[in-house]
Every structure is written in C-alpha cells, then in structure tokens.
Amino acid sequence: MRSLLKSMSYLYRGAMRVRNHLYDRGVIKCYIPQVPVLGVGNLAAGGSGKTPLVIYLAKLFLKKGVVPAVLCKSYAGSIKAPLLVHKDTPAKVAGDEAILLQTALPKCDVVTAPNKTEGIHYIEQTLQPNLIIVDDFFQHRTVKAKCSIVLLDITTEQSRRELLENRVLPIGRLREPLSSLRRADIVILSNRSLASAVSFSEIESFKEKLFSKVGKVPPIFYSYINKAKVISGKTNREVSTPLSEASVFCGIASPTPFLKTVRKLGINIKEKFIFSDHHFFKEREIKKLLQHKPLLCTEKDFVRLPKEIKKEVYYLQINIKITEEENFFLTLKEHLQQSTITFLQ
Predict the structure, then answer these.
(1) String of DSSP letters for 82-140
(2) H or E stretch at 15
(3) Residue 240 shares a structural domain with residue 203
(4) DSSP characters for 19-37?
(5) Which band of pLDDT confidence, cut at 50, 70 and 90, is reported for residue 59?
(6) Of 78, 230, 324, 326, which one has the greatest count of Cβ atoms within 10 A?
(7) pTM for the structure as a whole
C-alpha cells in the first residue's frame, strides 16, 4: 500500500509542477480582477488557521480606513452560486466558515461561493469594494492576486517535520511541493496553540532548513494566539467565572491546537468527542453530547449547531496577532500600492 501511495504522490507532484509551469509561463491564462485581491492560503491539507488570519486581516484594514469584501468557499454548504451572507443565513446553506466570518466581521460584506472565480466576479459586479480578501486561495491560480499570503503551521514538532519532509498528497499532507513557496509574497509561520510556545532558536533553525529547500526567502512573519476566551452560548459574552472542567467536541481538520489551548486555559477535559471536518451534528449526536455538560467547542463548530442547542454550549473564541504588525502592514501596502486603495494612515 505504501509503495502505491508513493507512486501516486510522485504522479501528483509531477502534475502540480506541470500545472504551475503552465501558469508561470502564461500558457494557461488567469483572470486579473479590477479590484485588488489579497489571497490567504496554505501549503498543507487540513487546518492551519486561515480563517482567524482572514478575520485579523479584515480588522487590520478596517483600522486603516479600508472596508474589504471577504470571499470564502462554501465548504459543506448547499449553494450553487455566489451568495452574500447575512446574519440569518443558515450554516447548511452558506457553510460554517462563511457564517463565522460574517459573525466576526459585521462591517464587511462576506460572500461565499462554490467557485472562487465566480465569487470574485460577483463581488466586482455587485459590491464594488476597494479590496477583496480571499480565504484558501494559494492553489486557486485561475485568478491573479495582488498579494498572496501563505500560512505555515509550526504549532507542533510534527507539523514542522511534515513541512521539512516535503511529501505531497497522498503520502504526505502537502498540496504542493515546497518549491511553490517561491510564488508567495508573504509567509506567516503560525503558532495555533497557547500551549506550544516555540522558542526563537527553534523558529530560526526551522526557517533556515525550510527555505534552503525553497531557494527564495519572501518576507516572513509570525502569528500567535493573542487571546483565547470562553464565550457562553446563552449570553454570547465571555464567561465571568472561568470553567474548571468541560467535555469538549469539535469537527475541524486539526483538533490538537484546540485541545491544547483548552488545557492551557486550566480547563480539565472530562470527555472529548472528535468529528470529521465541517461536520453537521445529527439529533442523536446532540442528545449524546448534552449528557456530558458543560460542553465546550470551537467557534466554527458553534455556528453549525441548531439554534435551540446553542444556549447549552460554550465555545472558544480566539484572536491572533502578527509580530511586527506595522512592518507587516507596510509590506502589504507595498504590494497593494499600485491599486486604488486609499489608507487613513
């Protein structure tokens, strides 16, 4: 079986290289939007913290006087065409990430679409913002971005090792080989857990090994969880009395950072229930979960719960920060400076 996966991995790697070469040489044409696009993506399959980064970026631009539109793909949603998300849009229609983004960014237009190119056309024609931030963009080469940010998960030793091993699907977790980082404008090394503080020497050693394989070193920044709060689903406010223990559940690609952060907050995990990514909870599953209160989940899981159940559940809300934020924003401005965006400062 392993030899078969290895052969499939070689074929996949070769196909991605040919595809990227055709785009790089202009053999396959890509659409150049009239509105500047800021793409956020990753190299590995599964979670890497893209959605919290999109929220952070949108709020950063809002502080600078720019109101971006946000586009995401309708994972697990039922829509067949681009949709402008409202606060009462069901998660089963728009997808959980779209609802999470709309809840976190009420001042921004959030659009979800099964096809990102169609979503960008829709935003240009109907909303006409000064900037479009696109979630999960890096492999979507049919559209030309003004700036492309790649997020690399360095939370655990395993996640760092997987990047250095440079193994693509299906034998590894990489969607593309490390050489694809050469087309990234900015790389962010993401620590997704309060519990796993990566030392400066570890980061520097990892960066040196990683980019010796890439050959090009783009501007590199570091993201971390600035604050993690437990929110009551009943009040939608941070709890006044910290939870001492809880049963946790989640349906996300990478549960480990969530579980580590819960423990770092001093919450004893009584039981844990792990579901597949973007999982919509069935009635029998909810009944079982309710036997293990108090219940704590991720914010992305919370938006997928039926309305009548939410008041019975707590969720973890995280906020991230980028080191050297002003330098980071100046780097973004350099890539966007030829566009029509006007900044307050």
Answers:
(1) -EE--TT--HHHH-HHHHHHHHH-TTS-EEEESSHHHHHHHHHHHT--S-EEEES-TT-
(2) helix 2-24
(3) no
(4) HHHHHHTTSS--B--SS-E
(5) very high
(6) 230
(7) 0.94
Q: Does 11 map to a domain?
A: no
CB burial readout 19-31, b (16+ within 10 A) else e: ebeebeeeeeeee
Distances (CA, A) of 195 to 52, 224, 257: 17, 11, 8
Nearest CA among 79, 84, 56, 51 for reference residue 301: 51
Rounded CA gap, 59 and 104, in Å?
Answer: 9
DSSP labels, 218-230: --EEEEEEEEEEE
Q: Could you give the CA distance from residue 217 to residue 210 in angstroms, rounded to a whole number?
A: 10
Q: What is the pLDDT of residues 294-307, one digit of tens each?
A: 999 999 999 999 99
SS3 of 239, please? coil
Count: domains in the chain: 2
Query: What is d(CA 126, CA 84) in angstroms, rounded to the nearest whole number?
Result: 10
pLDDT band at 344 (very low <50, low <70, confident <90, very high): low
Q: Is the pLDDT of residue 219 over 80?
A: yes
CA distance 29 to 141: 9
Q: Which residue type does 12 have?
A: Y
Is there a single domain that holds both residue 305 and residue 200? no
> What confidence category does residue 193 fall into, taking pLDDT thresholds of 50, 70 and 90?
low
- Domain interval for residue 202: 28-225+321-336
Over 90: is that where the pLDDT of 327 sits? Answer: yes
Whether 342 is in a domain gets the answer no
Write out pLDDT tens, residues 69-102. Answer: 999 998 878 999 999 999 999 999 999 999 999 9
Residues 150-155, mean pLDDT to the nearest whole number: 91
Structure tokens at 189: 């090394």
Long-range contacts of 256-259 (CB under 8 A, 24+ apart): 256/155, 256/156, 256/193, 257/47, 257/49, 257/155, 257/192, 257/193, 257/196, 258/298, 258/316
